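User: Just a sanity check before I run the rest of the batch. Below are the structure tokens for the first item. I only need the designed sequence back.
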């Protein structure tokens, strides 16, 4: 996925300590991805008051049943990334992923695509013509400062660990949950899990108390932390929770994300995650100047297919304060 907003704002994310256990709802925004088909996705991260959850810094739900506008997932032409990992998690459809480190793979539901940009990578994502009705998630994980220059690489995981207990089944995408560890490579203490609750479920999910966590429902409803949560918004749960009590009368499917509160300042703009305005400008220039040392060409694509970078914002950027828990009113 590419952030195809025509005039993306630059976001500065400040480091933070955890707020303790809280339960705060952050609404999904319907974000236009541009292009002729007028595609919208539901975005729950970043939020003005919550730029990150752990190192998770971007969270899009495409093809959502609750989106009110045109929601067919777009084919995304070649575009660049720096400073992040992309996590692609489809529920329906098939995606052909091609990138500048030579990957050319089909991804199916239940399989994790994890692309680590390091200092720079380019990729494209196309829906196969015979399965165009895509529905799924795309998330980004910010790389910590000591990993922003790693060699770009791509992983596909077809066999992920599953935590099962009475009433619950959780696929561990990255990190570990209830003693089940994903093979996906992570650079910060983190967790991401696709959780399904059976009808009538009443379960307790163990959590890492040093992490902050959040939940987004994909289908059904779950009651958690005295909150009835349906599809759409992100429920931020704060830190210092040893476990989560979950109940669902009709069953539920949701994504759990979490991690150590991210202790570094970030500047996010378009498809780039950096540490400074200058770093973002340099990456944009390298893409616009077709610097193949940083962003090699992708086999099977022509240079004309490359998505041009949007114009940089004219205004000088101000830090975006994170405001959760008692800081929020
Ligand atoms: Mn992308």
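Assistant: Here's the designed sequence for the first item:
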């Amino acid at each position: 996925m590419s952030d195809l907003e025509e005039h993306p704002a630059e976001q500065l994310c400040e480091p933070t300590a955890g707020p303790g256990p809280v339960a705060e709802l952050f609404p999904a925004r319907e974000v236009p991805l541009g292009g002729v088909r007028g595609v919208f996705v539901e975005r729950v991260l970043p939020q003005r008051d919550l730029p990150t959850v752990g190192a998770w810094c971007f969270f899009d739900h495409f093809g959502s049943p609750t989106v009110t506008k045109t929601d067919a997932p777009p084919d995304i032409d070649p575009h660049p990334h720096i400073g992040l990992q992309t996590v692609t998690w489809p529920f329906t459809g098939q995606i052909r992923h091609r990138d500048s480190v030579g990957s050319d793979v089909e991804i199916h539901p239940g399989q994790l695509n994890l692309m680590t940009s390091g200092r720079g990578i380019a990729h494209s994502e196309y829906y196969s013509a015979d399965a165009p009705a895509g529905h799924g998630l795309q998330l980004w994980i910010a790389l910590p400062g000591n990993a922003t220059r790693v060699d770009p690489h791509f992983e596909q995981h077809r066999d992920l660990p599953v935590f099962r207990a009475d009433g619950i089944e959780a696929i561990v995408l990255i990190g570990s949950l209830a003693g089940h560890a994903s093979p996906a490579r992570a650079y910060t203490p983190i967790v991401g899990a696709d959780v399904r609750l059976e009808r009538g479920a009443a379960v307790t999910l163990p959590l890492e108390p040093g992490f902050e966590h959040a939940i987004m429902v994909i289908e059904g409803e779950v009651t958690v932390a005295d909150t009835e949560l349906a599809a759409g918004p992100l429920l931020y749960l704060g830190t210092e929770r040893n476990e989560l009590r979950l109940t669902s009368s009709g069953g539920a499917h949701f994504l759990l994300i979490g991690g150590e509160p991210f202790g570094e300042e970030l500047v996010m703009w378009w498809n780039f995650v950096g540490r400074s305005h200058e770093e973002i400008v340099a990456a944009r220039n390298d893409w616009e100047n077709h610097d193949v040392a940083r962003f090699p060409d992708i086999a099977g694509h022509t240079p004309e297919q490359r998505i041009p970078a949007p114009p940089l914002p004219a205004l000088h950027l101000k830090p975006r304060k994170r405001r959760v828990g008692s800081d929020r009113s």
